[in-house]
Design brief:
Elements lengths: L1 H11 L6 E3 L7 E2 L7 E9 L11 H18 L2 E13 L8 H18 L3 E10 L4 E10 L15 E5 L17 H10 L2 E6 L4 H12 L2 E4 L8 H7 L6 H7 L6 E5 L1 H10 L6 E8 L3 E5 L5 E3 L8
Parallel strand pairs: 4-5, 9-12
Antiparallel strand pairs: 1-2, 3-6, 4-6, 7-10, 7-11, 8-10, 9-11, 12-13
Helix pairs in contact: 1-3, 2-3, 2-4, 6-7
């Protein structure tokens, strides 16, 4: 099965100017584009945890597996370059597909996203077993002259911004990941951002992580959080409110950023992206996660979200 898959990959993976030696050898050889820093991330997805394979198009699973890694590069304002893919396939396949056919469909989903962001699929590993599908991808990126965007640079007084709208990702956006790579690169190049990350485990939880990394607190303006239409639809079917979905659902893969009030207001005025940017809070001296009360007093806010 592996040899047949390697043959298919050799015939179907597009050429990439930075990939000198790709699939078929014991290791890949990349011509690194600059003398700048290398950014490396790895993330995995597993059947029955991150998706239900028997109910999901394998191409969407492949798309998600690569997308979550590209979102991590976006969080660091790094330009994606290459990825290596490790598949552990269910030996008997799934949904009428044998293991090789399943692998090909997974790769088809990855290749669509790789082409969109000019990412070389440089190699990887394939195995099979009697358990569920698991995919692990390691992605490589390069920082620009502005350097990487980190979680640890926020300061009290900075404003908190978010791209897009949040909540309800389980209705489909958790699979159709749209990594904000171009948005992160543009914002980091054009504006003086102090910190950033992507929202993968929920706004409340990830905001608390950014605050902890920066040694400050974050106070959210709950009435200004952009709530997705999916969150509203989901709230109509369960006991949670749209706001609760926006705070805790996770897998939004939007950017969570901080900047000085002057820079944040400039971003809001100019709205330079194809998706809206919204101010949703500020960094404060008191460590922890907070919301505002009726008298603008700080009240504790639960850091809800997905905990691994």
């Amino acid at each position: 099965m592996e040899l047949e898959l390697v043959r298919w990959l050799t015939e179907n993976l597009p050429a990439h100017p930075l990939l000198r030696i790709g699939i078929g050898d014991d290791a890949a050889v990349l011509r690194w584009p600059t003398d700048g820093d290398l950014v490396v991330t790895t993330d995995g997805v597993t059947d029955e945890v991150d998706f239900i394979l028997s109910e999901t198009d394998p191409q969407l699973v492949g798309h998600k597996a690569l997308g979550v890694n590209l979102s991590d590069l976006a969080a660091m304002a790094a330009e994606p370059v290459a990825a290596v893919v490790s598949l552990v396939l269910p030996r008997k396949g799934c949904g009428g597909r044998d293991a090789k056919e399943l692998a090909i469909e997974l790769y088809r989903g990855m290749l669509q996203l790789a082409e969109q962001f000019n990412v070389a699929i440089a190699g990887g590993d394939t195995n099979s077993w009697d358990g569920p599908l698991a995919i692990s991808i390691t992605a490589f990126g390069q920082v620009t002259q502005r350097g990487p965007l980190m979680r640890s640079g926020a300061k009290p007084g900075d404003l908190l911004l978010v791209t897009g709208a949040l909540g309800g990702s389980i209705l489909g956006r958790h699979l159709r990941v749209e990594p904000r790579v171009r948005e992160a690169l543009l914002l980091n190049e054009r504006y003086e951002l102090s910190a950033g990350m992507d929202i993968s485990d929920g706004l409340a939880l990830d905001a608390s992580r950014l605050a902890a990394a920066s040694g400050c607190g974050v106070a959210l303006r709950l009435d200004q959080i952009p709530i997705s239409a999916d969150a509203v639809r989901l709230a109509a079917c369960d006991r949670a409110t749209p706001l609760e979905h926006a705070l805790g659902d996770g897998e939004d893969f939007e950017l969570l950023l901080t900047a000085s009030p002057e820079v944040a207001e400039q971003i809001i005025r100019e709205q330079p992206l194809g998706v809206p940017v919204t101010i949703i809070g500020e960094c404060v001296d008191q460590r922890g996660l907070w919301k505002y009360g009726d008298q603008r007093q700080l009240l504790p806010l639960d850091a809800s979200g997905y905990r691994h």
